[in-house]
Amino acid sequence: MAEIVDTAVPAAEAPPAPVPEPAAEPVVEAPAVAPASSHPLVTIVRAADVDAAFKAAAQGWTVWDSMSGPDKFPFSYSEDEEVLITNGRATLTPTAGDDLTPITIGAGDRVTFHKGLKVNWVVDEPMTKFYHYPVPPPKIACDKCGLECWEESYFVEAGGLDICPKCKKTRDPADRKAWRNAERQRHGEPWDSDAEDEKPKKKKAKK
Questions:
Q1: Are the beta carbons of 141 and 161 closer than 8 angstroms?
Q2: Same fold for the domain at 42-132 and the one at 138-193?
Q3: Which of 38, 101, 103, 164 has its CA 20 to 30 A from that of 118?
Q4: Hey, where are the domains in the chain?
Q5: Does CATH number 2.40.30.100 belong to domain 42-132?
Q6: How many angstroms separate the CA atoms of 59 and 86, rounded?
């Protein structure tokens, strides 16, 4: 009996199922960072580039809190001032020079305001900052009580006296008379602070 040979062609194996490619990760745009100032009297290092050593050093400086005063005021820098902003945001608009472009500074920024800068401050968000003077300023002591009054003093031309704000409020008639025309100063320079000190007067109700 003849041998029966199976001549059927074996079925081809099915190709492996394609492996799905991983979904592309969404592109996350980096948050917009305000450019550093181009003003010659303002040097800014943005928060991301401020080194740890500077942050540590700033902890021992004087603290300024915008909540202690007006949120809009003019300011003139009679000395270089270096700051580390810890909270908040502000816009400074130069009022002198060729570049009057508004400057925005915010939390984490290291800023150096150079001597001669004149700006109008607008505090956009309540701000706190550490600040100091890289070159220690000269000392001004009150000639009445001896208190340090470099930040604010009153100069009495007659006698060349420097009077601190506390003594300026004296109730002594003789001193009040002698100091009534004293010139208000900041850092030993005339300080025109009327704009920031003025408060709207309440109108009396008509009867």
A1: no
A2: no
A3: 164
A4: 42-132, 138-193
A5: no
A6: 10
Q: Tell me which DSSP letter residue 171 carries.
A: -
How many CB atoms sit inside 10 A of residue 161's CB? Answer: 17
Q: Which CATH class is domain 138-193?
A: alpha beta
Taken as a whole, the chain contains a residue count of 207
Classify each residue of 83-119 as buried b or exposed e, where b means 16 or more C-beta atoms within 10 Å of its C-beta: bbbbebbbbbebeeeeeeeebebbebbbbbbeeebeb
The rounded distance, in Å, linking the Cα atoms of 185 and 167 is 14
3-state SS class at 176: helix
Instruction: Give the C-alpha separation, 154 to 184, whole Å.
Output: 4
Residue type, 201: K
pLDDT tens, position by position, for the chain (207 residues)? 556 555 555 555 666 666 666 665 555 454 444 557 778 999 999 999 999 999 999 999 999 999 988 999 999 998 899 999 999 999 999 998 888 999 999 999 999 999 999 999 999 999 999 999 998 777 899 999 999 898 899 999 888 999 999 999 999 999 999 999 999 998 888 887 655 444 444 444 444
- Is-above-0.70 flag for pTM? no
